Amino acid sequence: MGFLPFVKLGLVANGIIFGSVIALGAIGLTLVYGILKLGNFAHGDYMAFGAYVAFFIVDGLLPRAGIEGAGLGPFTFGFPVLIALPLSAIVVALGAIALDLLIYRRLRQRGASTAILMMASLGVAIAIRGLVQLIWTGDTQHYPRESRQVYHLPMDVRIPPDGLFVAIVAVILVAGVYVLLTYTKIGKAMRATSDNPSLALVTGINTKHVVWWTWGIGGALAAIAGVLLAVVQAQLLPIMGWKFLIPLFAAVILGGIGNPYGALIGALVVGVSMEVSTQWINPSYKPAVAFAIMIGVLLARPRGIFGDSQ
After folding, report:
1. Residues above pLDDT 90, as percent of the chain
2. What is the pLDDT confidence band of residue 161, given thresholds at 50, 70 and 90?
3. Contacts for 39 with CB less than 8 Å, ≥ 6 apart
4. Looking at residues 37-66, what average pLDDT do you find?
5. Which of 2, 11, 92, 140 has its CA 20 to 30 A from that of 98?
6. Is the pLDDT of residue 154 over 90?
7. How distant is the alpha carbon of residue 232 from its chain centre?
8. How many CB atoms lie within 10 A of CB 20?
9. What is the 3-state secondary structure (H, E, C) of the chain?
């Protein structure tokens, strides 16, 4: 039974959980575009790399330090995942800043066009994916996990505890991004730089630091999204981030490119649409649904729902 005769409410609930993961990645992606006008094709691979860094911490480092645990309360994962989550975010954030210093900043200084920067990000994506396969192979990996029963809610809605954890973490982080952008000095500097980089520089804003903060926040959100995606899907694959790119871009375009709050709404719409579509089509075609949404928005409203109409 659902809120409509032909829609299962359980799929809507799963879509909200999936959309929460998309939202974390999409907000980081749209922040980078808002500051640098760069559609970063490597963002999905930042997610995958973050998930694998967390896997290395959970499966390698922490057991050697005597910290283990397969179950935590009602969740399938253990306490080590909670330790690995922020550590992975820090690693990917620093890596994103380093890549900007080594590649993107040099290209910007040479006056490279947006197309060149995007092609460079595609090369970075391939390099990161290759590094992941070199270190962890292309085999499917899993976080240590224990089976847990799902919560049975009214109207035949079944939600696993892991899904609730993912949604709660996403809400907390999205609220944190809102507070940062709205009330902090660096957040105001980021918004000013996004609106007019030249004017921001003239008024004394250190735009170089703003760029670093943007890459750091975007990388951290991508890493956390990757870990949460691995928790939801119960597996890690080197290509998982690359396959996630279409939903990410669809959410960003739907909400309005460069608009973090629009990316959140767009992510939830895309996530719910993809999950609900499995009631009628094979789940393997879910990315096609996201692609269709992206194309439809580009044709009907190129600047997105929350973008400028002109």
Report:
1. 40
2. confident
3. 29, 33, 114, 118, 121, 249
4. 89
5. 140
6. no
7. 13
8. 25
9. CCCECCECHHHHHHHHHHHHHHHHHHHHHHHHHHHHCCCCCCHHHHHHHHHHHHHHHHHHHHHHCCCCCCCECCECCCHHHHHHHHHHHHHHHHHHHHHHHHHHHHHHHCCCCHHHHHHHHHHHHHHHHHHHHHHHCCCCECCCCCCCCCEEECCCEEECHHHHHHHHHHHHHHHHHHHHHHHCHHHHHHHHHHHCHHHHHHCCCCHHHHHHHHHHHHHHHHHHHHHHHHHHHCCECCCHHHHCHHHHHHHHHHHCCCCHHHHHHHHHHHHHHHHHHCCCCCHHHHHHHHHHHHHHHHHHCCCCCCCCCC
Q: Which two tokens stand for residue 148?
A: 């847990």
**Do 271 and 255 form a contact (C-beta atoms < 8 A)?**
no
Instruction: Say if residues 96 and 219 touch (Cβ distance below 8 Å).
Output: yes
Buried residues in 49-76 as b, exposed as e (16+ CB within 10 A): bbbbbbbbbbbeebeeeeeebeebeebb
Going by DSSP bridges, is the β-strand pair 151-153/157-159 parallel, antiparallel, or unpaired? antiparallel
Give the closest residue to 35 by CA, choosing from 226, 170, 181. 181
- For 220, the token pair is 């951290």
Structure tokens at 14: 């799963």
Give the CA distances from residue 122 to residues 31, 33, 74, 88, 116, in Å, rounded to whole numbers and listed in that order: 18, 15, 39, 22, 10
Tokens matching residue 106: 């040099």
Structure tokens at 280: 């009628």
Give the per-residue pLDDT at 69.
Answer: 62
In this prediction the pTM is 0.90
Please identify which residue in the block is written with the tokens 């992941």.
Answer: 132
Residues in the chain: 310
For each of the domains in the chain, give its residue range(s) and CATH number, in order of start.
9-300 (1.10.3470)
Please give the Cα distance from 9 to 3 (Å, whole number).
6
